[in-house]
Amino acid sequence: MNVNHFKGQAISWRQEKGVVQVGLHRSPCNELGSLSLAELEQFSSGLADFEKNCHAIVIHSEMPSGFCAGADLRELYERTAGMDKSLALAGARDFLERMHRVLNALDASPLTTIAALHGVAFGGGLELALACDLIIADKTTRFAFPELRLGLIPGFGGIPRLKRDIGNAVIRDLLLTGRSFNASKAHQIGLLSQVVAEGESLNAARATAVQLGKFDRHTAATAKQFIKPIPYDELKQEIDIFCGLFSRPAVQAGLKKFVESQEAQPYLP
Amino acid sequence: MQTADKTLDEILNLAAAHFKVPREKLSPDDDFFKTLGIDSLQTLDLLTRLENHFHVELPGYELQGVSDFRTLAGKIQARL
């Protein structure tokens, strides 16, 4: 595999001047399913190579609708509907464990990672951003953990990471109401590093990445490791709780309702 | 605090400009999904733009079942 650049069906990346720029480009809004996961795993397997001559990773979306609308619920529903419960559960657990390995590797990478957001950053999309060190969002960005409407909790490490970075009250608000909030609110509560004008998050992230390149890499990596512990125990616990909920009939009913919904507002829990 | 009529007018102006629909084609009681031809993600985009414009926070669940500009204006007016 050439780690300098990659053009996949869901994500692509290229290295330039010490920065790995990762673009998400799966229609309609970078829903995270098996294809995205496989390509994220490819990316993750190249992290050690990136460390040799890069100092930063910037993740952004090339889709106009937003950064990422979360897990691919349509795929999840189609793959599990009518399936034997224990097989469906084993498949869900495997998917979560693989996604956790990718996000944990990103979270723990000695490189400094920046998520550049616009539009929707819901569920798994927010969880991907939370695995990064810095989040830069433009004014169109909206954040949410809408999983409770499906009878689930976020499964890609969102709760432990948000708890680590912000605090329990914010998680309760997002999780228990399922509501979304905008970039101003996210900045106000400390989730964001910067809020920028519409369409400017990638430019701001690139400029930040240039600044990061001025510092000694070993020192930056040491500082990151010191200040950003990975909550491995809670991450494992999250998978167990998710899987415990996943077997309940409410989940299949919630997925079915979402996938078959003709409502104009399925993203408004 | 600004009047409800002004709030409604600003919503109609903002929606017309952003979704490139002639302002005269929008009426307060229109179903904005149909008139603007927007899907759920674009509705969230509209919500964000309205929050930014009016400097309010409008939880999405308050908009469940809301589909006309006048009711939407009422929800925003209640938070100004």
Task: Please sum up the structure shown.
The complex is a heterodimer of chains A (269) and B (80). By secondary structure, chain A is α/β, with parallel strands linked by helices. Chain A has helices at residues 34-45, 47-53, 73-80, 85-108, 124-130, 158-165, 168-177, 183-188, 201-212, 217-227, 232-246, 249-260; strands at 5-7, 11-16, 19-24, 56-61, 66-68, 112-117, 120-122, 134-138, 142-144, 180-182, 194-196.
Task: Give the topology.
The complex is a heterodimer of chains A (269) and B (80).
Chain A: E1 5-7, E2 11-16, E3 19-24, H1 34-45, H2 47-53, E4 56-61, E5 66-68, H3 73-80, H4 85-108, E6 112-117, E7 120-122, H5 124-130, E8 134-138, E9 142-144, H6 158-165, H7 168-177, E10 180-182, H8 183-188, E11 194-196, H9 201-212, H10 217-227, H11 232-246, H12 249-260
Helix pairs in contact in A: 1-4, 3-12, 4-11, 5-6
Chain B: H1 4-18, H2 32-36, H3 40-54, H4 69-77
Helix pairs in contact in B: 1-4
Characterise the protein shown here:
The complex is a heterodimer of chains A (269) and B (80). Chain A has helices at residues 34-45, 47-53, 73-80, 85-108, 124-130, 158-165, 168-177, 183-188, 201-212, 217-227, 232-246, 249-260, and strands spanning 5-7, 11-16, 19-24, 56-61, 66-68, 112-117, 120-122, 134-138, 142-144, 180-182, 194-196. With 269 residues, chain A is of the alpha/beta class. In chain A, strands 1-2-3-4-6-8-11 form a seven-stranded mixed sheet, sandwiched between helices. A four-stranded mixed sheet of chain A has the order 5-7-9-10. In chain A, a hairpin with a 3-residue loop joins strand 1 and strand 2 (11-16). Chain A is globular. The N and C termini of chain A lie far apart (42 Å). The model of chain A has no long low-confidence stretch (mean pLDDT 93). With 80 residues, chain B is an all-alpha fold. The mean pLDDT of chain B is 92. Chain B is built from four helices and no strands.
